[in-house]
Amino acid sequence: MRATIALLLPCLLLTGCVTAAKQQEVYSAIRDVGFLEADARCIASRAGRQLSIRELRSLQRAANAVERPVRDATVGQVIDAISTNVEPETLGTVVSLASECLQARSQ
């Protein structure tokens, strides 16, 4: 039993570290495209558990492609950055998470 716990503990700790790193990546990408800090933190805390590293990288590429906060970009620039870099299912997950955060904030 102790041997099993000794083997599982590093895995569990590593999983927590990976989730924290993923959350930071989501937070940075979302802030980079112009979301408010509170919204970015809410979405990041949820997305870090639900999105893969590959999906997170696609969000970062989209944020980098816009090259400015979303509020300063044209609609076409934002749509182009998202459609070029983010898969529809990833986008659906992010929209769902953003909706959850908006609902939580309005309660």
Automatic annotation (TrEMBL):
Keywords: Signal. Residues 1-20 form the signal peptide. The keyword Signal applies. It comes from the Bacteria. This is Lipoprotein. It comes from Croceibacterium selenioxidans. The lineage of its organism: Bacteria, Pseudomonadati, Pseudomonadota, Alphaproteobacteria, Sphingomonadales.
